[in-house]
Write a structure and sequence with these properties.
Largest sheet: none
Strand content: under 5%
Distance between the termini: 42 Å
Number of domains: 1
Radius of gyration: 19 Å
Shape: globular
Order of helices and strands: HHHHHHHHHHHH
CATH class: Mainly Alpha
Number of helices: 12
Oligomer: single chain
Length: 220
């Protein structure tokens, strides 16, 4: 077991969840309740990482984060090292590729809230902020939890985007999925099997949680 790679993957997953969920909730709320022009295009854009091969997404992110890009130049001038092949680059890439896993469960949960409930909150004088805090957040909690679990689990298993943007730098960008690939390339089957088993167990646990949350939400 490559404990350094596993620890890096866990840290990447936690950072991704903490940074992505608040932004994804606001976007999901806008898509669930909004009727603005271009909404369908934004929904398609959010779902794009589900359709495109990870290497394609990784290639475009590599171009966007590279030293020749404005973002890459600004980042390097501020922190003194390139954005690509760094942990920060992995975090940004992970935010992009996990967007549909965070937005879609929360959007579905918010869209399931009866309009009469939100109308009653306005009639009772609740401000929009209080309505979100006291009505929308509690009712959409299963969707939020599902988004967190899926985002975390997908981050641990992501390979193509991580390899394109981060490479395989031990302690910096070498996640557990990259470590499995490296062990297979080195014909170290026992190590690869041990790490693959860990990811398999995490995936099964994540699916069990999401199915349980989905049944709970359906029973409400």
């Amino acid at each position: 077991m490559d404990w350094t790679a596993l620890g890096l993957s866990l840290r990447l997953g936690l950072v991704t969840v903490m940074l992505l969920l608040p932004v994804a909730f606001l976007l999901a709320r806008s898509l669930a309740f909004g009727r603005w022009r271009g909404r369908g295009f934004v929904e398609a854009l959010v779902a794009l990482p589900l359709i495109l091969p990870p290497t394609v997404v990784g290639y475009y992110l590599l171009v966007a984060f590279g030293r020749a890009s404005p973002l890459g130049q600004v980042f390097e001038s501020l922190l003194g090292h390139p954005l690509v092949f760094s942990f920060e680059g992995l975090v940004l890439a992970s935010l992009v590729v996990n967007l549909p896993f965070a937005v879609q469960p929360m959007q579905n949960a918010l869209a399931a809230i009866p309009p009469a409930v939100r109308d009653a909150a306005r009639c009772c004088g609740l401000s929009p902020v209080n309505a979100v805090r006291r009505i929308e957040l509690p009712l959409s909690l299963p969707g939020i939890a599902t988004a967190a679990v899926l985002t975390f689990a997908h981050t641990l298993g992501e390979f193509g985007v991580v390899l394109m943007v981060g490479g395989s730098i031990p302690g910096e960008t070498r996640t557990v999925s990259i470590a499995i690939y490296d062990r297979v390339q080195a014909f170290d089957q026992p190590a690869a099997a041990a790490m693959a088993l860990v990811l398999l167990l995490i995936a099964v646990f994540a699916l069990a949680i999401t199915n349980s949350l989905a049944r709970r939400a359906a029973s409400r």
